[in-house]
């Protein structure tokens, strides 16, 4: 798993207090639709970051949601967010490894991930674990960085070495779901639209939340060499000349 070597990167993201995925709220909304998430559903968010999506699902759809993340600081911030947003009675947060989820079989109506599977070398292993904890008839869905056209070896290595991301193309992500045994697999790749990315950040975290993250980013960039490395290779990895190659996809399939 590449994420074993990415602990510093995940800690860097946790220190920002803001997690991101390409597509932002547009991707989240599409994921909710593809996974048929609605009132009364029991949802697992794997790699929940600072808890924005679980809290959104609880508030907007009345779901019960469990969020898991590998980084304890993410879970701490998620619990604080749930309390601040008044949904602590409908969400739960647990430190856990996606490869060995601490849940019984056939439990959740939907299991979702947002920018998680790019960090795994053995993507099939974690997919089987997601399916294990999904009930029959439930959905497994994800939004992930997706190659729109074949990347150059240099670009592929940049993402792999700087932020530990190993993406697939549209057909690759769909094949991953199908080969894991899911049925009725659907989804599409999308181009990144910079104004929508920015709008989604403000929608998800609010003006003050975005401002705090930017201030933290500036402080970390000046004070920590590792943070400067991640900012150069991660936060700033997508520029306009790369938008024909790097996009995101939203995919889901049903457990038979």
Provide key terms for this protein.
256 residues; alpha/beta; Rossmann fold; 8-stranded mixed β-sheet
Explain this structure to me?
- With 256 residues, the chain is an alpha/beta fold.
- It has one domain: Vaccinia Virus protein VP39 (Rossmann fold, 3-Layer(aba) Sandwich).
- It is built from 9 helices and 8 strands.
- The chain has helices at residues 7-16, 24-34, 52-61, 72-84, 123-132, 153-162, 170-179, 194-223, 225-235; strands at residues 42-46, 64-69, 91-95, 108-114, 134-147, 168-169, 183-191, 246-254.
- Strands 1, 2, 3, 4, 5, 6, 7 and 8 form an 8-stranded mixed sheet that branches.
- Strand 1 (42-46), helix 3 (52-61) and strand 2 form a beta-alpha-beta unit.
- The radius of gyration is 17 Å and the shape is globular.
- The protein starts with 6 loop residues before the first helix and ends with a strand.
